[in-house]
Amino acid sequence: MIRAVSPIDSHVLGEFSVSSSAAIQQQMQSARSASVEWADVPVKTRIKRLSQLMSLLLTELDTVCDSIVETTGKVRTEALLGEIYPILDLLRYYEKHAAAILAPQGVITSPFAFPGATAQIQRKPYGVVAVISPWNYPFQLTMAPLLTALFAGNAVIFKTSELSLPIGQLILNICQKLDLPAGLLQWIIGDGTTGAELIDAGPDLVFFTGGLNSGRAVMQRAAQHPIPVMLELGGKDPMLVFADADLNRASEAALYGAFCNSGQACVSVERLYVQESCFEAFLSLLRHGLSQLTVGHAEQGDLGTMISDRQFETVKAHYDDAIAQGAKASGPLQRDGHYVKPVVLWNVNHTMRVMREETFGPLLPVMPFADTAEAVQLANASELGLNASIWSKDINKAERIVQQLQVGNWVINDVLKNIGHPGLPFGGVKKSGFGRYHGAEGLRSFTYTVSGMTSRSHLPKEPNWFPYSDSRYQQFKGYIEFVYGSGSLLQRIQRNWPALEAFKEYSAFDLTQRWQNLKLLLTWKRDY
User: Fold this and answer.
1) Are 267 and 140 within 8 A, CB to CB?
2) Best CA proximity match to 80, nearest among 9, 13, 137
3) Fold exhibited by the domain 237-420
4) Measuring CA to CA, which residue among 169, 176, 145, 160 is closest to residue 53?
5) Of the options 3.40.605.10, 3.40.50.720, 3.40.30.10, 3.90.550.10, the CATH number for the domain spanning 2-233+440-450
6) Is residue 232 among the annotated active site residues?
7) How far apart are CA 260 and CA 278, in angstroms?
8) In angstroms, rounded to a whole number, what is the distance separating the alpha carbons of residues 354 and 318?
9) Are 202 and 225 in contact (CB under 8 A)?
10) With 50 as the cut, is the pLDDT of residue 528 above it?
């Protein structure tokens, strides 16, 4: 049994039985049967059934928000905007576009190489997708890959973090109201050991969101089978503020980007770089704005709780290390239960843990830079590469800078909001993981391609079929030189005419007639 406890006041939210290995195997068999049935359902019908979730969520909006608040400790508005709104937006996006995104695609074929043939690419669901989600945004970061997998035609077995089990139960309860095949969507309960057993049960794709070390373990486990994986891992996201930026707006954004959900977001602003010429003025704005933030679940509350003692210890270790190395702070690291007061740090450098390791808490280190070159160098000085925020009124300059950043996502003159755009693929580079979800690319990531070609040729045989001979070799060589060689079309035809003439019986067009037409065209151009 796992007892779920609210980080707000430690009251018990429920007790949950850990899924056994045998139960997981049975769930996998059920999911595999359901996946075959679901894959045969037309995409438009899938869309119609899954889109009913929107009205269910709107009907139960307050109940869902309250459950998220109790389970995660975040404030109610954060639960609404950070957890539920992105799912509604994603549902609407796939409702409109999924059918076109998943439709077969025709591919141009050469009439010379493939006479009488057409080609296409089809997309087919993997089968059973295992979704392993984290505790920081347990509703959004479970539902987004889960729904994307279902739209693509897969069955899903999902495992929420052992710290957010009530959200797993909530998701299951809501989705059971949809018209889906039995066994298509299932939930398992447990910690990392249970996650390993889920992978060992043999899903066809694993989608994992979490920390770097856990991601390594998932990838290693999946490699034993092998099973393809998509990893959405941590971030140490930089925010670059140039002197020509709107400093008031940028300071408000920095506070939000660093401290929403008490800094427990993979795309939190964890490194803030400010141009030297405006550094002191910007720091003053930050400190003033910081003093206005409130912590708690009263009517006016900006920050909720941190999730656990373990996560607070990481924050404390980063804070203590920075202070020991000479950093200055807006105040002491104050804790009341799981509520933690946010802190701004300055006089920091890249030898400090707070500038190198993912903090995942309410610390905002601020460091000056001299020019664009140094700003880019500092931003890229991380083993992680998830998201970045650039601030300048010179949009052209900002767009040039983002092209130099080693990240999977960026936003100019805003923070975090870009990752919620349903049409933009989201994912990281370097040790922030690989694979994408959201958008067309994200939906297709939950499918594999099947390529096919249909021949409508009435010829008795194809030119590449037997028999082979030295003369045939020379003819093929001439054809290849005609297609890929240098010079104008006329020059290549003249050099390789004997070879082309040898293949005219296989072409969809008579080469002699084409040659005559080309000569007439060239004569017309010369004369007129």
Assistant:
1) no
2) 137
3) Aldehyde Dehydrogenase; Chain A, domain 2 (3.40.309)
4) 176
5) 3.40.605.10
6) yes
7) 25
8) 5
9) yes
10) no
Measured CA to CA, the distance from residue 104 to residue 464 in angstroms comes to: 28
411-428 pLDDT, tens digit per residue, is 999 999 999 999 999 999
Q: What is the pLDDT of residue 362?
A: 98
Q: Please state, as a whole number, how many other Cβ atoms lie within 10 Å of the Cβ of residue 433.
A: 27
User: How many residues are given for the chain?
Assistant: 528
Determine which helix (DSSP H) or strand (DSSP E) holds 129, and give its type and residue range. strand 128-132
pLDDT category at 509 given cuts 50, 70, 90 is: very low
Residue entry with tokens 């059971």 = 176
DSSP 3-state of 128? strand
Q: Which two tokens stand for residue 118?
A: 């057409």
Q: What does the pLDDT read at residue 109?
A: 84
Stretch(es) of the chain classified as CATH 3.40.309.10: 237-420
Closest CA relative to residue 166, chosen from 22, 352, 14, 347: 14
Helical axes 85-102 vs 52-59, angle rounded to 10°: 180
- 40, two tokens: 């045969």
Q: Is 311 left (phi over 0), alpha (psi -120 to 50) or beta?
A: alpha
Among candidate residues 83, 232, 270, 357, the one labeled active-site is 232
Cβ-based burial of 409 (10 A; exposed 0-12, middle 13-18, buried ≥19) = buried
Q: Is 358 noted as a catalytic residue in this protein? A: no
Q: Give the span between the Cα atoms of 79 and 167, in whole angstroms.
A: 12
Tell me the mean pLDDT in the region 339-353: 98
For 234, the enclosing helix (H) or strand (E) is: none
- 295 in helix, strand or coil? strand
In the chain, residues under CATH classification 3.40.605.10 are 2-233+440-450
Written as one string, the DSSP assignment of 239-251 is: EEE-TTS-HHHHH
3-class secondary structure, 528: coil
Render pLDDT for 197-243 as a digit per residue (tens, 0 to 9).
999 999 999 999 999 999 999 999 999 999 999 999 999 999 999 99
Phi, psi of 57 (to 5 degrees): -65, -40
Q: State mean pLDDT over 37-46.
A: 98
What residues are paired with 369 via a beta bridge?
275
pTM: 0.93
Do 156 and 31 meet the contact criterion of CB atoms below 8 Å apart? Answer: yes
- Kindly tell me if the per-residue pLDDT of 24 is higher than 60: yes
Write a three-state SS string for 202-220: CCCEEEEECCHHHHHHHHH
Query: Could you tell me which of 356, 327, 330, 159 has the C-alpha nearest to residue 238?
Result: 356
Residue tagged active-site, from 65, 175, 260, 266:
266
Q: How confident is the model at residue 313 (pLDDT cuts 50, 70, 90)?
A: very high
Give per-residue pLDDT as tens, 348-366: 999 999 999 999 999 999 9
